Amino acid sequence: DSNQRTKSQLDNANLELKIHPSDSECWDLDTAPERYVKGLGTKDNLALIRWRETVTWRKENGIDSILHESQLNYDFIKQHYSHCYFRAQSGQIVFLQRPGLSDMTKLVALGSDAVLRHFIFLTEFCFRVLSPDQNATIITIYDFENVGVSDLGKSEFVDLFLQIGKLYQTHYVGRSAKPICVINTNLTFRMFWKVACSILAERTRKKVTVLGSDYQGALREVVGSEFLPEEYGGNNKTALGESKEEILMRDWVQKNQKD
User: Fold this and answer.
1) Nearest to 196 by CA among 151, 165, 150
2) What does pTM read for this prediction?
3) Is 76 exposed, middle or buried (0-12, 13-18, 19+ CB in 10 A)?
4) Which of 218, 223, 109 is closest to 157 using CA atoms?
5) Angstrom distances, CA of residue 259 to CA of 71, 214, 252
6) HEC letters along 169-192
7) Is 132 helix (H, G, I), strand (E, B) or coil?
8) Residues 58 and 64: beta-carbon distance below 8 Å
9) I need a surface site. Which of 40, 50, 219, 248 has the fewest CB within 10 A?
């Protein structure tokens, strides 16, 4: 039955669990990681300056140990904000976010600090467990279906999205794959995008591809037909939120809460 299959998947996932060193454990203060140099260039030592700022941020916020923290808000955020991971044909991790199927009011009530901490945990798990290569990137898909003017007209919703975006571009330089796919967009998205462009770096904006409702062919090309979920035009029958990557992450969170 389904419970038996889930247990089997968990057992298989556990065999592969290994926490790899963080960026700040692999690089010293005088050497910026390759992706920082590639993404920011060498002019005015910008890559090194940003790297040192990130190291400081990691130390001040205990990022290197976040995978061993109890993620007490994990289930709550997963319940009220629709997001999940799966693997692309290329081997890259795909991060699907569906704000239109989410209760953003609950996230705002929880507080931006808790939500940002959740996203940092997810990102660290991706790059220290699921795809530990120093130059690994994530394919991001934003599905804006059911996002209306009433949602993006609330500044607290937009502010939360922008804080998450700014976090990634500031402290996870070179981790977003090109393209960042935005699908099921409408006139509402244009309002959001205008605001987002004011805080997103040019290198990030250039990665974004807005696909509207005619997106299936493009996603099959980016993700691979056999790996893209059926809901989005692919042949992958695994339910969203039940990929091997999701099971592994969920099991890790449960283990830490018990410990």
Assistant:
1) 165
2) 0.89
3) middle
4) 109
5) 12, 46, 11
6) HHHCCCCECCCEEEECCCHHHHHH
7) coil
8) yes
9) 50
CA atoms within 13 A on the CB side of 47: 15
- The widest CA-to-CA distance across the chain, in whole angstroms, is 60
pLDDT (tens digit per residue) in 185-228: 887 787 778 878 877 888 888 999 999 899 999 999 999 999 99
* Secondary structure of residue 229 in the 3-state scheme: strand
pLDDT, one tens digit per residue, over 155-179 is: 777 888 889 989 999 999 999 999 9
- Name residue, tokens 């805080």: 199
Strand partners, 236: 229
Closest to 101 in 3D by CA, of 86, 114, 83: 83
Q: Which two tokens stand for residue 76?
A: 């709550």
Tell me the three state secondary structure of residue 125: helix
- For residues 121 and 78, the answer to whether their CB atoms sit within 8 Å is no
Give the count of beta carbons closer than 10 Å to the beta carbon of residue 136. Answer: 17
Rg (alpha carbons) of the chain, rounded to whole number = 18
